[in-house]
Amino acid sequence: MDTPVVHRRHFLIGAAGVAVASTVPGMGGLAFAQEAIGTQAPTTPLPDYASWKKPEAMIVHTELTLETRRPFIGTSSVVPSNILFVRNNLEPPDSAIVADADAWEVAFEGVAQPRTMTVRELKQLGIATVPTVLQCSGNGRGLFDHEASGSPWLTGAAGCVVWSGVPLRAVVDALGGVAEGARFVTNTGGEVIPEGIDANEVLVERSVPIENVDTIILAWEMNGEPVPLAHGGPLRVIVPGYYGVNNVKYVKRIAFTEAESEADIQQTGYRVRPVGESGAPDQPSMWQMKVKSWVTHPVVETPSGPIQIHGVAFGGINPVQRVEVSTDDGQSWQEAQLLDPDLGRYAWRSFVLPVELPSGTYSITSRATDSEGNVQEQTTEPNHRGYDYSGWDRLAVEVTVL
Amino acid sequence: MDTPVVHRRHFLIGAAGVAVASTVPGMGGLAFAQEAIGTQAPTTPLPDYASWKKPEAMIVHTELTLETRRPFIGTSSVVPSNILFVRNNLEPPDSAIVADADAWEVAFEGVAQPRTMTVRELKQLGIATVPTVLQCSGNGRGLFDHEASGSPWLTGAAGCVVWSGVPLRAVVDALGGVAEGARFVTNTGGEVIPEGIDANEVLVERSVPIENVDTIILAWEMNGEPVPLAHGGPLRVIVPGYYGVNNVKYVKRIAFTEAESEADIQQTGYRVRPVGESGAPDQPSMWQMKVKSWVTHPVVETPSGPIQIHGVAFGGINPVQRVEVSTDDGQSWQEAQLLDPDLGRYAWRSFVLPVELPSGTYSITSRATDSEGNVQEQTTEPNHRGYDYSGWDRLAVEVTVL
């Protein structure tokens, strides 16, 4: 059979843990595949704060960016904490803050009765549990052709996890309601700001539209355990359906504000714009996620006979309605089965399609549609920072059926 | 206020990891509480095959029985693998079997075309994902008054986890269907049988009614990772809604049989009978679980003010319909809220009830009702082996509101 030729750039992880582009046809695909399945030992050791991760499942891009290798994602909907990706904008704070998690303090501002509350107090106000997809804005950056700064994530800067905490609405109600004129929820991370620089240059402070007040939870539990430091413990803001950066870690201040944060990360960072343009506040912010899916098995080669193609799909703020799978580079599509359990609108859903393929090489990919009829795009237009490549074209895997 | 006096026996874990009954009123409650919250360091180290568990969360009864301390269960529905209880009937096999999981072989008998299949082959036949409550038959044994042999589990020989694997139905269909006359699915564990003894004395082989062929899955994945050795990897039989013992680990043989297994574990073990009687095949087998719930927070003491009482509830083969909570030893009840996500009929559901209690001591307990109207019992009649204490009376916690 004809092997579909897929033009794309692939990455090898070099000795220093730095991504190196490979443009050799064929070789690129193989390198991509080997890197993805973890046949190479990690080239950089896990950082101390994440030393409890499963090393063979992780690509260590830098000390602050750890990716989950594609085929380590299973079909159980929930991604276990020990293989979940990590992306920190700054060094995490000292681990002492999770040793006495209930004592962590958060300042609430822009409410009728502003005050500081401890996690211990927040735990008295209410409980909600919500599974969400956590996805870095730069997930898929490695699939763009242009050189965008940041880690060259493939698919593994994403995972679906279960959060428990207090609904922000319950806290706001306890504090007398939101101050008049507020249009944003502005959340500040508890990272230590290095001395001698303008705090706004590095401060992790993100604003999201105030409508999210009814879905945000302040989470002290992830996947049934206290939120680990690597994932934002003692307390993390969870904005369901929004990119990871909005889910501020070690949150120390929650403010209802009239304007967006003055921090660079809000004003000019995480802004979608053409390649070569500078970031500016009038460009779209990386808030709500797009509909997206990808295949997690098979990814390299598989015996002939029956094959269960499976993967994950999500719709950002909308539930996934359907997933189609193509084994011929998008020329034809078959409807996949969505697997139970359905963890809710903000979670991802596993899908499976049983096929029988003769020996050969196939470009296998998936295309999700959400409940509003939004269809996963075929290709993602380049954007300066290489945010969220969601096109089913380059999310495809080249699989050899033996 | 009056402190309700709860007559019950409590356990201290002694230096040898052996449970010691405490009958000192007051002291018993305190010991129970301290033991439950994990203020005591583990007295027995974790066994090698489970060394990756979180030590402070586990009560090590023996090398083969590890219990989750009650307040380590959160509100996220899924119990993370590193705090899930362990109960093995025999030493687990060598860990080499999980290192090459796909090569593990299972013999299928009592089908039209009997044969042996590898996990690799099973993975080609289909995929289903099902969250289930895994609960040891002896969970709650420590709450009975009589001395029943076995570990004195409190509430922590139970957890809710997500399994992925192939539906047994898909395998049976691939093998030409079930042989005529079969009434049971009989599953044999892959433990090494010590030499010089009658295999039936120790063989882990359990039969369940054949109706379960449509719900059983053969799981290679638990909570999104390959099933660890401690939990039955490479392949475990999952019989949703059934006690743990039926969920045979390292399964090496799956047979459709006319009669139940000849192994003692089926014939005389796991049979419910009055105290003092021997086990016999005409007594009820520990198959389907009962409706049950318990409070996981607060368990010892809590500051006054608003309190979020939370816990877990399940209905065996039926979904939980409602949970009520009492703070006065069962004299009055209030309806609790069932938390999302709903992971399906075989999972447990977290519940929460916000209350305000003045300073004092309270007996707090919960009572679940399943979709068929079955109500959790008030007390559990003694049975010889101390199986599944489910009464809301002794599952209560004594809590001091400061």
TrEMBL record, chains A, B:
Keywords: Metal-binding, Molybdenum, Oxidoreductase. Residues 99-262 form the Oxidoreductase molybdopterin-binding domain. Residues 366-387 are annotated as: Disordered. The lineage of its organism: Bacteria, Pseudomonadati, Pseudomonadota, Alphaproteobacteria, Hyphomicrobiales. Residues 285-398 form the Moybdenum cofactor oxidoreductase dimerisation domain. Its cofactor is Mo-molybdopterin. This is Sulfite oxidase. It holds the Pfam family Mo-co_dimer. The keyword Ribonucleoprotein does not apply. SUPFAM superfamilies: E set domains (SSF81296), Oxidoreductase molybdopterin-binding domain (SSF56524). The keyword Metal-binding applies. It comes from Devosia nitrariae. Residues 366-381 have a biased composition (Polar residues).
